[in-house]
Amino acid sequence: MNKFTFQNSTKIIFGEGQIAEISSNIPKDARILVTYGGGSIKSNGVYDQVCEALSDHTWDEFGGIEPNPQFATLMEAVKLVQTEGFDYLLAVGGGSVVDGTKFIAAAAEYKGSDPWDILAADAKVESAVPMGCVLTLPATGSESNMGAVVSKGSEKLSFGSPLVRPQFAVLDPAVTLTLPARQVANGVVDAFVHTMEQYLTYPVNAKVQDRFSEGLLQTLIEEGPKAMIEPEDLEVRANIMWAATMALNGLIGAGVPQDWTTHMIGHELTALHKIDHARTLSIVLPAVMRHQREAKKDKLLQYGVRVFGVECGTEEECLDIIIGRTVAFFRAMGVPTSLSEAGLSRDDIEPIVEQLRTHGMLKLGEHGAIGPDEAREILELAL
Ligand code: NZQ
Ligand code: ZN
Asked: Which residue, 115, 142, 175, sits at the end of a domain?
């Protein structure tokens, strides 16, 4: 196992009816800006629960944060925070609202000339407005991690800082019952791929991390399809919600090599072609598995035996079956597993490789061995 420091300070407040608890988790004298997305919270009762919980607080609201939150929209909120003096942010929504609010928190206190620079590779956040969140879509893990992804035109970039980690996250699985099936599927697939990108590298004898990861993968494989078939089952939703948080809260990634190739290529697919985040991942991951079949062989076989119970003849036969089972899981979730299913062709590959180059994504993978040529080969395997 590699050396690591692990600290996750987000207080998790889990279960039905827990939105009421935000009242005791935000200082009474705070001036709160509640941020949200396109309005789902106003039609599903979440907004009313937040209003009730904040009845003794001073607060205002900022809505309209879009999926793949846009820099220009977020900057409107930054101005509001600065001019009105809000000193606490409460994000109510999915990963986009939580990520967008993390950016608002950092940009409102940014001393440089252009807040877009917060997303530069070498940027460091020096201070941020404190924030909490009420999560309505289990997927990204943003509710208890320190990362955020922000878009501007065809740029989709990320930043991370412990200063934007939410102080608390309310996870009420009941609020996920109003999610459209597409978003339920996206969430399960995103959490699955987060787990894979911290697991599917090479063995470092990290038994706890491996077995936690395998437990999360099994949970998502078991419960994901159930959520599609029995959308009213609250226990299924609860298990998915907790799995998605655990998949990217730092725990399973501590002390192990990681490979975020699928996400980095996926972000370019979203930026250029507006494909939902999770759907880019279900397209790219199987191709990464095929391309890295030899380099990742030990972990692929471990995954096959422990997660799917695959038993077969030769290693090569096993690997085919294991990659096939992964694709079958994505298909069961109704997400695409090839570029062509998303309407893309060979002609679309080079611009994606160019974007990776522009963004300095020249040494992806656990060994830094995936450069532009390998990314092109992966995209060709994804056709
Ligand atoms: O905007 P509203 O009206 O709220 O509707 C949203 C949105 O249209 C809707 N929704 C959310 N909760 C709902 C609901 N509809 C009905 N009932 C509910 N309870 O769902 C739609 C999608 O929401 P969004 O927040 O965009 O989805 P998700 O949570 O998948 O977030 C995706 C974003 O997170 C980033 C992605 O790149 C993408 O920008 N990621 C953030 C990460 C992180 N911070 O660690 C890691 C991830 O890998 C990912 O990159
Ligand atoms: Zn993701």
From this structure: 175
CB-proximal residues (5 Å) to ion ligand 2 = 190
Atom number of ligand 1 nearest to Cα 46: 19
Same domain, 286 and 329: yes
| pTM reported for the whole predicted model | 0.97
- pLDDT tens digits for 173-212? 999 999 999 999 999 999 999 999 999 999 999 999 999 9
Query: Is 164 in the same domain as 189?
Result: no
Structural domain boundaries enclosing 130: 11-175
Q: What is the ipTM of this complex?
A: 0.99
The pLDDT tens digits for 296-345 are 999 999 999 999 999 888 999 999 999 999 999 999 999 999 999 999 99
Report d(CA 234, CA 214) in Å as an integer. 23
Burial 256-271, CB ≥16 within 10 A → b, else e: bbebbbbbbbbbbbbb
Residues with C-beta less than 6 Å from any ligand 1 atom: 37-41, 44, 67-68, 93-97, 99, 136-137, 139-142, 145, 147-149, 175-176, 178-179, 183, 186-187, 190, 248, 263, 277
The answer to whether the CB of 322 falls within 8 A of the CB of 307 is: no
> How many Å lie between the centroid of ligand 2 and the Cα of residue 312?
32
